[in-house]
């Protein structure tokens, strides 16, 4: 009888819906059961270990967000250097080179927003080691933003960076104190 009375609580939690549950037990017991269920779900969420829980911490999960707050002039094949950091766990992104080096193998997500100067063309590619992946091309009147959003499988030591397209000199990444140009990446799954 006890299990049947509390089955609706389990169903509501697992479906992600919130609503009022009426039952014969005290509210203190209901809250305790609810807290226990939430705790168990958080341990199981994304663990992939049959209920062993997620044992990774923020310190051992590669993640970075770098940005520019000034213009960068680019020659043909130059790497964009996002030279300021908001986040850089495991120090995997190097502001002096503009390159992220994977400290662990796994599935990674990368995204970037780059802004061209007013009325200027900007042609960039995101590179995985020496292989061109996604491209961004902006052209026309006004300031334009190009974006990158990719998921890549990396080996330890693989490099990710954004580079100006060959044969396209005198391009500029625009940014100022509003930080219009950003580059981020993080490990999704080991």
UniProtKB/TrEMBL annotation:
C1q domain location: 57-190
One GO CC term, this protein: extracellular region
InterPro entries according to UniProt: C1q_dom, Cerebellin_Synaptic_Org, Tumour_necrosis_fac-like_dom
The UniProt record lists the keyword DNA damage: no
Taxonomic placement: Eukaryota, Metazoa, Spiralia, Lophotrochozoa, Mollusca
Superkingdom assignment: Eukaryota
Keyword hit for Oxidoreductase: no
Keyword annotations from UniProtKB, A to Z: Secreted, Signal
Protein name per Swiss-Prot or TrEMBL: C1QL
Compartments, record wording: Secreted
Cleavable signal peptide: 1-23
